[in-house]
Amino acid sequence: MANKTFDDLPRSEQEDFRTVCLDAGLAPDAFTVSYTEDLVGADDVKVLEREVMVSFGNITRGYTAGNGTHWTVDFEDDVKSHVFV
Fold this sequence. Notes:
By secondary structure, this protein is an alpha+beta fold. It has 2 helices and 4 strands.
């Protein structure tokens, strides 16, 4: 599993992340976003597992993503709960 950066995420996820930040009055560039992903499973049944890490200052949160999950929804919940302040 190689670490990937925000720019490697699908464009729709990048846009969702930026929208959440801007709606909350936060600068998207103030965050560091990275992730790892891997295909796991047996033989012909593989599932994409992705773990997205979002850091803001000394606060880091991890979000499970991949195969239709929307980590940006969980990120938005944390933003609304003032986790990143």
